[in-house]
Amino acid sequence: MTSDEIRERFLSFFESRDHRRLPSGSLVPAEHDPSVLLTTAGMHPLKPYFQGREKPPHHRLTSCQKCFRTPDIDKVGTTTRHLTFFEMLGNFSIGDYFKQGAAEFAWELSLEGFGFNPDDIWVTVFEGDDELGIGPDEEAIEAWLAIGVPRERIVELPRSENFWQAGDTGPCGPCSELYLDRGLDFGNADDLPGGENERFLEYWNLVFMQFDQNPVGTLTPLPAKNIDTGLGLNRLAAILQGVTTVFETDQFVPLIALGEELSGKRYGTGFPTDRALRVLADHTRGMSALIADGVVPSNEDRGYVLRRLMRRAIVQGRRLGIEPGFLPAYAGRVRELMGAAYPELVEQAETIDMWVRTEEETFNRTLEQGLKLLEDVIERARDEGREGIGADEAFRLHDTYGFPFDLTLEIAAERGLGVDSQGFEELMEQQRVRARATEGRESQDRTREALRTFAAGAGGATVFTGYETTEQATAVAGVGRQNGHVLAKLVESPFYATGGGQVHDLGTIECEHGDCRARVLDVVRLGDDQALVLEPLEGELKNGERVIARVDTKARRPTECNHTATHLLHAALRETLGTHVRQAGSYVGPDKLRFDFTHGAPLSREELRRVEDRVNEMVLANMPVRAITTTLDEARSLGAMALFGEKYGDVVRMVEVGDGSWSRELCGGTHVRATAEIGVFKITQETSSAANVRRIEAVTGPVAVQLLRKYDRVLSETAATLRTQPEAVADIVADRERKRRELEKQLRSGAAAAPKELAADEIVEIDGIRAVFEITQVPDPKALPDLADRLKNQLGDPAVVVLGAPGEGRASLLVAVTPGAVERGVKAGAVVKVAAAAVGGGGGGRDTMAQAGGRDPDKLPDALAAARAEIERALAS
Predict the structure, then answer these.
(1) Who is most buried in 142, 527, 621, 807, counting CB within 10 A?
(2) 520, 534 in Cβ contact below 8 A?
(3) Residue 255: its pLDDT value, please?
(4) Coil, strand, or helix at residue 114?
(5) Residue 502 contacts residue 670 (beta carbons within 8 Å)
């Protein structure tokens, strides 16, 4: 069976048994799941259903979910089964069938769907755990016995093997795994499932999701007992295709063949070659899937995972001797193999190719730089008689310059040197600890969980009416208190809850009879529900009270202008820069809009002008803005843009501008009715947000008008000061700036050309070396090297010149040393380093010339004294 046939047979089997087939979720988890960086299991997109936060589309579900696990990156290629990117088949029951049903389905499909011999199947169950306070899973044992599995083929295993959880907290429960006995050719008679052997191969995990773990070690029964199973498609393909490794299955063989074709090497001729070809096959699948789901290479979070994946692949390609520029060829082969199952690989082909090509070009330059730096490190280690490279040096190469540690190990070994691997790993762990630090996250999670508990206890979900009205007569469904504030839940609410980049509404709630009033401080989104945080102004809000909820339209209206303008900006950026541009975060409030997007370079002035003009063109066209409720499939077929990592149901809200051909996005925010309501759009700045992510901030409406009036006023005042017309200001300022630079250049050259003749008492004799220590006034520190050269000419050789120049809140230092003095042991870099410390700064340079700066010009005399002491020390040693 091919991988495609396995996938379809699994999904069809469960579909025919009343399971609803779901498409794979994104590798970027939805915002409701901050517990993981990337989707690591089939149940991650379904967590709100298991936790009872959202109503599932059906009580039985099935899917083939894209997954990515970062802990296995280093193992890829060295084993027969480890992958980073893989597909997980699963069937799920939400409050419907439980252990008996899950076991029966798995047994039937294993035998009738995949043709396994029942005598070759063993199962494992949870043996219990004292720390969790639960015993052996007798219910699971009885389920398997009822099917006919002999008791001796049911093996009890500990928590580490048979208790499943996606993170430290969240849905969890005991599990039962199915193993295939491959016979004594693969092991020994006393081998058992779960042990370190190749005889028993696990292929299916049935998770009996009964508990919610929060806090760690404390189990609370879930609202309903659920089933979550995971069957690794790639591992099952290896079994059914009769091969011993996933890399010999139909999804990988064409990628291995591409590596052979490009490198001229052959798979199976040796471990280093096999490992490199396997890494290339796995990593290029993973990078394609990550980029298709909106991840871009960077040095943080998911972007770091992607960058690491790409760079490991590039290194392996170089080791095989593949000519640079090979990643796009791999991406193309991945599309051929998997594009039918995952159409986003084809839809995002241009973006995938752009990022892999750019990253490969960039990293090849990084490798060249890293190799030169490593040569210096190796040379220094040899000169100092060391046996190896220190952990700090290896870590600096890795962390600062992106040079792979395994490449450092390999090259150092070739030169007969070791590397402090343990020290390197300790430094890496320190970095991981820093990266994991999420200050305030636990407190925020506790606050949100308390709000969720309050809302769940106050009845059904609030009905949001804010699309239709900004004033709603409604009733209070529940009242509570938290941290000195009043909590409230309304039956209907016009208040928009923070989400999708848009800030929450402000406003008031007044009792129908006027005897109470409260100000809305926050509107918290809780899945399909919401809760209000209020500040009482008068009276007391009570449960069941009839109230009038009013949105502050002075804040809502400009927020709507900025939100619609964000959609127009997104479209203009894609039109101007290319379809690789994707939203990577946003802020939409009444004061401004901020839009982060994937792009690898700053925008030029011309590009910014074109983007701004295009948005204003759409504003002036007064095109209608419509929100349409439709199916997710229909929205996608119309080309609607979706936010990566956002979770969408079967029914979605699509916002389109005009006929939708220019801008059509899935969006739950509030918008203007027509683009002319935006008034005017003005970009205020364009900066970097992260590696390969740019940020544009802009204003619209009255805020933009005020800004433009301010610019006009400043320009008019400047024109008056220059005694010219506003349109001539730029030329006049440019001309004056040119003249100022010419005068400064003349001053510098004049100061350097005519230094005073040194008096005898200004020259210090130190052990046969003539030296000058002088604090001098110069218009620009750039004049110091010329001045030092002329002073050296007066002193002869050997000589040392140490100059200090004060500035506004800044001190500059320069040390110049003649060759004769260098031979005596005086080095400019060492001298300037000591001197710079005295003025609170640092610097460096060559042995003959070094410069430094500091923030304390009053300490320049101390710096010159420190420089003299260092020269004396060097000559004495």
Answers:
(1) 527
(2) yes
(3) 97
(4) coil
(5) yes
Cβ partners under 8 Å of residue 810, min gap 6: 853, 854, 855, 857
Query: Bridge partners of 664?
Result: 656
Asked whether the bond before 857 is cis by omega within 30 degrees of 0, the reply is: no
| Helices 327-338/253-263 angle, 10° precision | 160
**With bands split at pLDDT 50, 70 and 90, how would you rate the model's confidence at 543?**
confident
What residue has token string 């509107």?
523
Instruction: Give dist(CA 91, CA 22) in Å, integer.
Output: 10
Q: Tell me the β-bridge partners of 627.
A: 655
For residue 345, give the amino acid letter: L
**Closest CA relative to residue 89, chosen from 34, 143, 13, 157:** 13
496 in Cβ contact with 527 (< 8 Å): no
CA gap 830, 817 in Å, rounded? 11
Contact 147, 88 (CB under 8 A): no
Tokens 């001797």 -> residue: 321
- Whether residue 136 has a cis bond before it, omega within 30° of 0: no
Q: Pseudo-torsion of CA 358, 364, 369, 375, nearest 10°? A: 160
162 vs 413: which has the higher pLDDT: 162
588, 501 contact by CB (below 8 A) = yes
Q: CA triplet 545, 548, 550: central angle to 5 degrees? A: 140
Mapping DSSP to helix (H, G, I), strand (E, B) and coil, where does residue 635 land? Answer: helix
The model's confidence at residue 432, banded by pLDDT at 50, 70 and 90, is low
Q: Is 866 helix (H, G, I), strand (E, B) or coil?
A: helix
Q: Evaluate the CA torsion angle 361, 365, 366, 367 in order and state its sign.
A: positive
CATH number of 756-876: 3.10.310.40
What pLDDT is stored for residue 578 in this prediction? 92
**Helix pair 327-338, 301-319: axis angle to 10 deg:** 110
Answer whether residue 686 shows pLDDT above 90. Answer: yes
In terms of pLDDT, which residue wins out, 59 or 368? Answer: 59
Give the Å distances, CA to CA, from 158 to 136, 211, 782.
9, 17, 70
pLDDT number for residue 10: 97
Give percent of the chain above pLDDT 90. Answer: 55
Dist CA 306 CA 284 (whole Å): 10
Percentage of the chain modeled with pLDDT above 70: 95
Q: How confident is the model at residue 264 (pLDDT cuts 50, 70, 90)?
A: very high
Amino acid letter at 127? Answer: E
How far does Cα 684 stand from its chain's mean position?
A: 26
Q: What is the dihedral of CA 3, 7, 12, 17, to 10 degrees?
A: 130
CA–CA separation, 802 and 815 (whole Å): 5
In the CATH hierarchy, which top-level class contains the domain 556-709? Answer: alpha beta
Q: How far apart are CA 257 and CA 350, in angstroms?
A: 24
Q: Where are the alpha helices (DSSP H) in 511-665?
A: 553-577, 605-620, 632-637
Cβ-proximal residues to 366 (8 Å cutoff; 6+ apart), any chain: 401, 402, 403
> What does the alpha-carbon distance between residue 289 and residue 281 come to, in Å, rounded to a whole number?
13
Distance CA 247, CA 266 (A): 14
Q: pLDDT for 391-430, tens place per residue? A: 888 888 887 666 778 778 878 887 888 898 888 888 888 7
Vertex 57 angle, CA 53 and 63, to 5°: 100
What is the per-residue pLDDT for 591? 93
Write down the CATH superfamily of domain 3-243.
Bira Bifunctional Protein; Domain 2 (3.30.930.10)
The CATH fold of domain 441-551: Elongation Factor Tu (Ef-tu); domain 3 (2.40.30)
Beta-bridge partner residues of 624: 674
Q: Using alpha carbons only, how large is the chain's radius of gyration in Å?
A: 34
Q: Which residues contact 466 (CB under 8 A, 6 or more apart)?
A: 493, 494, 495, 496, 505, 551, 670
The two three-digit tokens of residue 759, written as one number: 């008096």
The whole-number pLDDT of residue 755 equals: 56
Are the beta carbons of 23 and 34 closer than 8 angstroms? no
